[in-house]
Write a structure and sequence with these properties.
The protein contains six helices and twelve strands. By secondary structure, the chain is of the alpha+beta class. The longest helix has 23 residues.
């Protein structure tokens, strides 16, 4: 919740109070170094990409608070993330143009170029998604192979049976529903604060990963997630969590040759929708994708066509973000750089 709150404060420092700013998407939250001690934390961020349209990208990092006069070291950066914020007219609720961000230093130019690349990637991804195009040849072959393997599981003349560590996607689902209380509303209107939705979906994703693996999962990242429709105070929020994809990891070449996974990256997909109690109408509010690490070899397999498409979509996402998980955010603030900016109001330092 603190990360989304900070991104909102930074956004209003850039746009002023004449517009309403909402969270459109969380592009990435990555754990760089787990916190191993009790210490003060410094949350810092700035607008890194804005070209004069209604949206802006805000990059944030969480680090151990440095000593007075010292700068943040690379190993002290605990978490990096990026939010996409959109400015709306407070009366019409339609997007309005905001001033572009001015880049001066080489570091600011690097972050701006990275934000532009991310913006173009999201546009391309929307045009190549499974709602626009069918799975490619490699994905189709994988789907067919999984389907054939499941037929063998049920063939009485075939000794092959489903391994005990393999679970069908339909058996991994968890549901949650709750009424939206006014204490969690955005300070500018009677819509629920986006940070609260992130907190709620994370807790359900953690429970889903734990129930699936029968172990305590370790959070790795929040993968690109979107907010589609606002959640009004007094409405009912419905959440559905399921294991969308699993990827084995190996500690040594010997185990990899044997196909024996030491641990597994588990991707949890949260689908959310909101229902207006008085009118009974239901709208989707967003999709959230969390990745956890569990210390055992375990696999999820789809059965229906819809589940296969969820699996393919999650596999694509895992391939895109695998490098950033392994590299722990080297590009966006992970190198110990200070993303607070200058004293022009685009950066804000908060110490807890």
């Amino acid at each position: 919740m603190d990360l989304d709150a900070l991104s909102g404060v930074i956004a209003y420092k850039h746009t002023g109070e004449s517009v309403t700013t909402v969270t459109a998407a969380v592009d990435r939250i990555t754990i760089n170094h787990p916190l191993q001690e009790l210490c003060d934390l410094e949350l810092s961020g700035q607008v890194t990409f804005a070209t004069g349209r209604s949206s802006m990208e805000i990059s944030i990092q969480v680090a151990k608070a440095p000593k007075e006069g010292a700068s943040v070291e690379k190993e002290d950066v605990l978490m990096t993330c990026a939010f996409t914020m959109v400015s709306l007219d407070p009366n019409t609720k339609k997007p309005v143009a905001i001033c572009p961000v001015k880049v001066e230093t080489e570091e600011e130019k690097r972050l701006f170029a990275l934000g532009e690349k991310n913006y173009n990637t999201k546009k391309d991804r929307a045009n190549t998604g499974l709602r626009k195009q069918t799975p490619n040849d490699e994905e189709s072959d994988l789907i067919h192979a999984m389907w054939l393997r499941q037929l063998e599981y049920h063939d009485p003349n075939n000794p092959l049976r489903k391994p005990p560590n393999t679970h069908y996607m339909s058996t991994t689902t968890l549901h949650s529903s709750q009424i939206m209380q006014p204490q969690y509303r955005n300070r500018h209107n009677f819509m629920i604060f986006g940070g609260y939705l992130l907190k709620t979906t994370f807790e359900l994703a953690f429970c889903c990963a734990a129930a699936f693996s029968h172990s305590r999962p370790t959070f790795l990242s929040l993968d690109p997630s979107t907010f589609e429709n606002p959640v009004p105070v007094g409405s009912v929020l419905y959440l559905k969590a399921s294991v969308a994809y699993t990827e084995p990891t190996f500690n040594g070449a010997e185990n990899e040759d044997k196909g024996k996974a030491d641990s597994t990256r588990v991707q949890i997909r949260i689908d959310s929708k909101v229902r207006d109690i008085e009118h009974g109408s239901t709208k989707p509010t967003g999709q959230f994708n969390y990745t956890f690490l569990v210390e055992r070899g375990i696999e999820v397999v789809p059965q229906t066509y819809e589940e296969f498409m969820i699996w393919v979509d999650a596999r694509r996402r895992a391939e895109r973000v695998r490098g950033s998980i392994d590299g722990a955010g080297q590009e966006r603030g992970g190198g110990g750089g200070d993303v607070r900016g200058k004293s022009d109001g685009r950066g804000l330092r908060v110490t807890e």
